[in-house]
């Protein structure tokens, strides 16, 4: 049987994630959205592209949750995106209600699924999902580091005039201005970027990475980014479903790792069957660790807001 992947929220990010998965024949897709006809239309449109893609999975659109039963992976992108002038945190209350409602359905219908949250403010929404679902921490994670890292890699490739595929880099921490790009661990085909770029250039790229989402929001004016977010999500799903053991930063519940307790924050993990197989604890320098902890403190405050909303 092919793996089953349900995507709740068939908007920009959800549809792009679905297309990424269909393109690579990763599994059967169920697109769920509250907008009548929209997920059905997108699913049909995608199915009509399958002869061109050479794919053979099924793609189904629906406005109810019956079809998500038995899902191996559930991706949640349901919720509002940012508009210009908004921070991700401005979305907290509205998206809390949406994510909570979606998770209640997921808990009932797909109790064995691995769940990936994409809705912002990311880390607070993963915490919401974790609380509502009651699943073990290996099966609840947030997609943010995968996106922030691909952005960091893209900007480095742009600056160095090399293929983005040859740049590896990681961004840890929260999905926001307090994220923690790690230049010390970034390289081009194994060459540390600290050997290739002066300090000021690296700093400028780090700063651009931190505000990359806002840069897109300002340009689009009507919503936030979706190509890179959708494909970063698809890559995580693929690693889980195909047991690839890809190393990706993801927002997971830390229970003492990096000296952080009971906070969802982005750290490198190994993704395979069952979700998070391992959390990697990188050796960090004092200042890098301090930034990660500042990031975690910020999320902790948002988690307190979620606790208050949960009552
Ligand atoms: N159940 C299912 N779908 C829902 C629900 C719900 N309760 N509430 C909203 N949706 C759907 C909307 O109908 C919409 O189609 O979620 C979809 C969100 O899609 P977009 O508005 O296109 O937003 P998108 O750009 O995809 O971003 C989604 O991901 O990156 C984050 O910040 C972003 O929080 C935002 C989320």
Describe this structure in words.
The chain has nine helices and 14 strands. The protein is of the alpha/beta class. It folds into two domains: 139 residues, Rossmann fold, CATH 3.40.50.720; 166 residues, Lactate dehydrogenase/glycoside hydrolase, family 4, C-terminal (L-2-Hydroxyisocaproate Dehydrogenase, Chain A, domain 2). The model has no long low-confidence stretch (mean pLDDT 97). The structure holds adenosine-5-diphosphoribose (APR).
Total domain units = 2
The CATH topology of the largest domain is L-2-Hydroxyisocaproate Dehydrogenase, Chain A, domain 2
How far apart, in Å, are the first and last alpha carbons?
41 Å
* Helix-and-strand structural type: alpha/beta
Poorly predicted ranges:
none
Number of strands: 14
How many helix segments? 9
Radius of gyration: 19 Å
- CATH architecture of the largest domain, please? Alpha-Beta Complex
Q: Can you identify the CATH superfamily of the largest domain?
A: Lactate dehydrogenase/glycoside hydrolase, family 4, C-terminal
Strand order in the sheet with the most strands: 3-2-1-4-5-6
Largest sheet data: 6 strands, parallel
Helix content: 40-55%
Which geometry do the CA atoms define?
globular
Order of helices and strands: EHEHEEHEHEHEEEEEHHHEEEH
């Amino acid at each position: 049987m092919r793996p089953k992947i349900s995507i709740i929220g068939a908007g920009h990010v959800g549809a792009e994630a679905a297309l990424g998965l269909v393109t690579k024949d990763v599994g059967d897709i169920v697109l769920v959205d509250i907008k009548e006809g929209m997920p059905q239309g997108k699913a049909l449109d995608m199915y009509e592209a399958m002869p061109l893609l050479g794919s053979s999975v099924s793609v189904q659109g629906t406005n109810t949750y019956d079809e998500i039963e038995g899902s191996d992976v559930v991706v949640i992108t349901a919720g509002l995106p940012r508009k210009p002038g908004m921070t991700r945190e401005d979305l907290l209350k509205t998206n809390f209600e949406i994510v909570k409602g979606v998770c209640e359905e997921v808990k009932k219908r797909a109790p064995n699924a691995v769940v990936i949250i994409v809705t912002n403010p990311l880390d607070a929404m993963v915490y919401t999902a974790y609380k509502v679902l009651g699943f073990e921490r290996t099966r609840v994670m947030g997609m943010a580091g995968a996106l922030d890292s691909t952005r960091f890699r893209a900007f480095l490739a742009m600056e160095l005039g090399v293929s983005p595929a040859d740049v590896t880099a990681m961004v840890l921490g929260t999905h926001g201005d307090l994220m923690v790009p790690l230049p010390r661990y970034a390289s081009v085909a194994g060459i540390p970027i600290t050997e290739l770029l002066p300090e000021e250039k690296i700093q400028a790229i780090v700063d651009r990475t931190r505000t990359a989402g806002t840069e897109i929001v300002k340009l689009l004016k009507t919503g936030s980014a979706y190509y890179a977010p959708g494909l970063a999500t698809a890559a995580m799903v693929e690693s889980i479903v195909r047991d690839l053991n890809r190393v990706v930063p993801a927002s997971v519940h830390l229970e003492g790792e990096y000296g952080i307790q009971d906070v969802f924050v982005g750290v490198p993990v190994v993704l395979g069957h069952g979700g998070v197989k391992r959390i990697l604890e990188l050796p960090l320098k004092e200042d890098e660790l301090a930034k990660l902890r500042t990031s975690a403190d910020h999320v902790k405050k948002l988690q307190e807001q979620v606790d208050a909303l949960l009552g």
